[in-house]
Design a protein that fits this description.
Layout lengths: L2 E5 L1 H11 L13 H10 L4 E5 L9 H10 L4 E5 L3 H10 L3 E4 L19 H14 L2 E6 L3 H9 L4 E5 L1 H5 L6 H17 L3 E5 L7 H4 L5 E6 L1 H10 L1 H12 L4
Parallel strand pairs: 1-2, 1-8, 2-3, 3-4, 4-5, 5-6, 6-7, 7-8
Helix pairs in contact: 2-3, 2-11, 4-5, 10-11
The structure holds pyridoxine-5'-phosphate.
The site of pyridoxine-5'-phosphate has 16 residues, from β8 and α10.
C-alpha cells in the first residue's frame, strides 16, 4: 500500500487570509488546521504534514504544538535546514521531519533542496535527527547527484520533488519528467533510501504518479484542501487514498 500524508498548510493559508492578527485566544478562528487534520485521519490519512516556514505565512508555531498533541497517526514537520528549526524539531519530536529549501541559495534548478551544495548543514541536521530517533527525509529533485548525496549523508528517506512533472503534465515534456522520477526512485531504492514523493500531485496525475516504483508515501496538500471545499475533508481524503492504491 502507498501511504498518504496529507499536507494541511493551505487550510492555514485560508485562515491567515482573514485572521492573521488573531491571538491564540481570539475566539472562533476558522478554518482550524487541527480540526482538518483530525478529519483527514478519520478518513484514512496515514500522516499529517505541515511546513513551519520561517516567514510563518500559513502554519504557526502554536498549530504545530497542538498537532503534536492531537495527531494520532504521525506528524511530519517540513522545515528549513537551519539550527533554529533543528532545535525546534528536537523539542517537538515529530515522527518525521522533511528538510525543504526556503531560500534561493539552497534550491536546485527544479526546486528541490540542494543537498550537494549544502552538505555540511544537511549532514548536521540529519545526524541530530537520527540521534533523536526522528526520521529525516530530504526533499530533492529526482537526480542522481542529489540522491547519492542524500544516501551518503545518512538520511533514511528522500521525498522526490514531483513539481516539474506536475508542471509538465499537459506538455510533451511529461514523459521525460516521469522517466526522471522512475529512474530517481529506482536509484534511491538501490541506495537504501525509502522513497516518498510530493508536490503538485492531484486527482488526475495520481494515476501515473502511483506507478513510480518503490513508493512508500505520497505527500499531498493543495488538491486535497481544494477538493475538500466542495466535498468535505473526509471524502476528499478517502478519494485520494483510493486513487493512490488502485490496481495498475
Ligand atoms: N511535499 C513537500 C516537501 C512540500 O513542500 C509540499 C508543499 O509545497 C508538498 C509535498 C505538497 O504539495 P502540494 O500542496 O502541491 O500537494
Amino acid at each position: 500500500m502507498i501511504f498518504l500524508g496529507v499536507n494541511i498548510d493551505h487550510c492555514a493559508t485560508l485562515r491567515q487570509a482573514r485572521y492573521r492578527d488573531a491571538t491564540a485566544d481570539g475566539g472562533a478562528v476558522e478554518p482550524d488546521p487541527v480540526a482538518f487534520a483530525a478529519a483527514a485521519e478519520r478518513a484514512g490519512a496515514d500522516g499529517i504534514t505541515v511546513h513551519l516556514r520561517e516567514d510563518r505565512r500559513h502554519i504557526q508555531e502554536r498549530d504545530v504544538w497542538r498537532l503534536r498533541d492531537t495527531v494520532r497517526t504521525r506528524l511530519n514537520l517540513e522545515m528549513a535546514c537551519t539550527p533554529e528549526m533543528t532545535a525546534l524539531a528536537l523539542k517537538l519530536m515529530p515522527a518525521f521531519v522533511c528538510l525543504v529549501p526556503e531560500n534561493r541559495r539552497e534550491v536546485t534548478t527544479e526546486g528541490g533542496l540542494d543537498v550537494v551544495g549544502n552538505r555540511d548543514r544537511v549532514r548536521d541536521c540529519v545526524a541530530a535527527m537520527n540521534a533523536a530517533g526522528i526520521k529525516a527525509s530530504l526533499f530533492i529533485d529526482p537526480d542522481a547527484p542529489q540522491i547519492d548525496a542524500s544516501a551518503d549523508l545518512g538520511a533514511p528517506f528522500v521525498e522526490l520533488h514531483t513539481g516539474a512533472y506536475a508542471h509538465a503534465y499537459f506538455t510533451p515534456r511529461r514523459a521525460g519528467e516521469f522517466e526522471r522520477l522512475r529512474a530517481g526512485a529506482k536509484l534511491a531504492h538501490a541506495r537504501g533510501l525509502t522513497v516518498n514523493a510530493g508536490h503538485g500531485i492531484n486527482y488526475e496525475n495520481i494515476a501515473e504518479v502511483r506507478t513510480i516504483p518503490h513508493l512508500y508515501e505520497l505527500n499531498i496538500g493543495h488538491s486535497i484542501v481544494s477538493r475538500a471545499v466542495f466535498t468535505g475533508v473526509e471524502e476528499a481524503v478517502r478519494e485520494m487514498k483510493r486513487r493512490a492504491n488502485l490496481e495498475t
